[in-house]
Amino acid sequence: VQLVESGGGSVQAGGSLTLSCAMSGDMDTVDTFGWSRQPPSRPRDHIAYLGKNDGTMYDDSVKGRFTISRDKAKNILYLHMTSLQSTDTATYFCAADTKAQTFWGQGTQVTVSS
Fold it and tell me: Deepest of 3, 9, 11, 26, by most Cβ within 10 A of its Cβ?
């Protein structure tokens, strides 16, 4: 499974941004899709999950503001982010979990200025 994120950039506080993750490989082996982020000098945190049955889970820090979704036909995973805050500044990574391992993209930077 290969993952390539895009859509990062700079945005003012209160703004919105949608990240995309182009996925290739055998999607049938993937159990869970997700997004994580790593703020500067901080560890990586999982923030959104999407299961094979389209169930979703969110970290409290993004619940109600971020939405994870997937275009199955195009094999693209999205993270729609609204009401962005300076604390959302981080490198964002998409991930795909299989029984054997977790695959990661290279990350895309999101910077929120107040």
Answer: 3
